[in-house]
Every structure is written in structure tokens, then in C-alpha cells.
Design brief:
It is a single chain. This protein has helices at residues 16-20, 29-43, 61-64, 72-96, 118-126, 144-154, 188-193, 201-209, 224-229; strands at 9-14, 48-53, 101-105, 114-115, 130-134, 159-164, 185-187, 214-218, 236-239. By secondary structure, the protein is α/β, with parallel strands linked by helices. The protein has one domain (9-239): 3-Layer(aba) Sandwich (Carbamate kinase). The protein has a nine-stranded mixed sheet, sandwiched between helices. The chain is globular and about 50 Å long. The two termini are 28 Å apart. The protein binds uridine-5'-diphosphate (UDP). Uridine-5'-diphosphate binds next to helix 1, helix 3, helix 4 and helix 6. Uridine-5'-diphosphate (UDP) binds next to helix 1, helix 3, helix 4 and helix 6. It is an enzyme of class 2 (transferase).
Length: 240
Amino acid sequence: PKQPYKWQRVLLKVSGEALAGDHKENIDPKITMAIAREVASVTRLGVEVAIVVGGGNIFRGSSWAGCSGLDRSSADYIGMLATVMNAIFLQATMESIGIPTRVQTAFRMSEVAEPYIRRRAVRHLEKGRVVIFAAGTGNPFFTTDTAAALRCAEINAEVVLKATNVDGVYSDDPRSNSDAHLLDTVSYQEVISRDLSVMDMTAITLCQENNIPVVVFNLAKPNNISKAILGERVGTLIGG
Ligand code: UDP
């Protein structure tokens, strides 16, 4: 039967920074629980949800590369491992409120999570399970935003929903330009040419090439995640 909601299958990107909130540790359990509750409410309605988690709350490869001789690739592998920690935390939180959840990692860690197998991920989604993709793309020099775009295309999800700490995409940097305003919609091309720094270029061009719309929205506002997943207007829609 046709889904009554706008999207049948979504890819939710949760950055590490968003998971941290204002908690003094790396993860704020209130935030993971809020995410779990909102995801639970929409999976019950039949929308399939896959999640890509970031790791920036624990380790960001680019800011450590070069430190004490750490090369970029090694730093990035540590960053990817950080995403696995977030994924397992989120999985445990989701399962504690009864949402069956699987973590799939981009490189093997079979004792803690399944390896990424596309067809298996799709099968989990079809069965109503949430799938969390961890370890980014599995390659250094990439980001979890790019992993979100890639996995979205691979599993035929219809949209990337990027949960952030800001309300959406602004016409300029609101910290330096007081005239900057929140955009309702914006084209991929504008994001790229005006360097609106919402996602890195690799991620945004991958979305553009595959006609994947991206919704950028604030995770801190109550019900925003479920609204975004159900296709209600929140934040900024990047498309066309
Ligand atoms: N990373 C990587 N390849 C990927 C995804 C992530 O090397 O495909 C590493 C990179 O070092 C990055 C870190 O993992 O800094 C954490 O991911 P990201 O910065 O994208 O997390 P977020 O900003 O969403 O918290």
C-alpha cells in the first residue's frame, strides 16, 4: 500500500556535535533519548529510518592530523571509530525503548556490529528495524556527511535529513552578517557557489548528481526530527 507520508524511507544524519548537546561529556543521554523517542514515533507509522552518525563529539580527524606525527589517514580511522561509539550508544538507547536497531559498520568489527551489507540493510528496514550506519564510508579523507549521501543513494532512501545545531541554511554567516536570514529552500548550485557551508562539497555534489534532496534542520527543537521524517516543513530544503 502507498505510504500516506511524504517519504517512505529516509536517511537521518546525526552529527556528533548534535549528540553532545551542552553536556560536559561527549554524549548527552537526554539527546539520544529524544532522538530515539522521535524515531520510534515515526517507525510505528511505517516510515523506514536509516541513520548515519558522526563522530565529531569525540574525535575529528582533520583537527588531530599532524599532531605528534599523526598522519591524516590514521587520524581519520580514529574518527571513524568514534562514530562506532556513538552508534552503539544510540542503538542501546533505541532498543531500551523497544525499537529493534542494527548497527552496520563500513569496516569489519564483527564482534560489536554487523558489517555493512547493502541488501541486508534494506531487508532490516523492510522489517521495520532501524539501521545505524557507522564508521562513515570506511575511507579516510571523507566525512560522515558524504557517508550519509552515499548510503542514501545505495539503499534508495528518498531524502537526507541533516539534524544539526542550527535552524537550517542561512543566506550568509549569521555570526558576521546581521542581515543573514534563514532560507526556506536553496539550490545545490547556490550552496556550492555561495559556499553556504552546510555540508562538505563531496557530500553536496553527490546529492546533486543523484537528485537527493537534503533537509537541514535543528535537532534541538522538540518534534523536529519526527516532523522532518514525516515530510513536514522544517529548516531548509536543498534541492533542484
Ligand atoms: N571519517 C572518515 N571517513 C568517513 C567518515 C568520517 O575518515 O567516511 C572520520 C573523519 O576523521 C571525521 C570523523 O571520522 O572527522 C568524524 O566524522 P565527522 O567529522 O563527519 O562527524 P560529524 O561532524 O558529523 O560529527
